[in-house]
Amino acid sequence: MLLKLLSESSWMNHMMKTFEATTALDSRQRRPAQLAERELKHLELILASFVEGSAAPGRLPTKYWDMRVAQLDSDYELVPSQSHRVAMLQRKLAMLDSALNSASAAADAQERQNRRVAA
Predict the structure, then answer these.
(1) Nearest alpha-carbon partner for 76 in 40, 35, 42
(2) Which of 30, 49, 80, 94 has the fewest CB atoms inside 10 Å of its own CB, making it the most exposed?
């Protein structure tokens, strides 16, 4: 009887370790493409509002949104059309970031010029 309890106990320990190892492996697997669709639509909407000028670009930097887009690629098992949309979002964000940096640099240059004229 004691031997049977010990073997059941070791079997349970083995099963628990197997379950924990499987759960840890599953947590590293990428999520299905269907779950990415909502995130993709949200990011496309946010980026469209930046491009249209209806969102204040200073609220969250473009680098934040770029990180969110990159996370889609790493966390989800995207289908080819979704991968294409992610790549488009990344290109548009890079162009937006470049435009914002250029506008900021131009505003800084204009401010310096105004200071020189006022002095």
Answers:
(1) 35
(2) 80
Strand partners, 39: none
Are the C-beta atoms of residues 79 and 33 closer than 8 Å to each other? Answer: yes
Residue at 18 is within a domain = no
DSSP bridge partners of 76: 31
CA 45 to chain CA mean position, Å: 15
**Is 44 inside any structural domain?**
yes
- The candidate with the shortest Cα–Cα distance to 81, out of 46, 41, 27, is 41
51 within a domain of the structure (yes/no): yes
31-32 and 76-77 beta bridge pairing: parallel
Name the token pair of 55. Answer: 């969102």
86-118 confidence digits (pLDDT tens): 999 999 888 888 887 787 677 777 777 777 777
Instruction: Decide: pTM greater than 0.70.
Output: no
**Which range marks the domain in which residue 45 is found?**
31-118
Domain count, the chain: 1
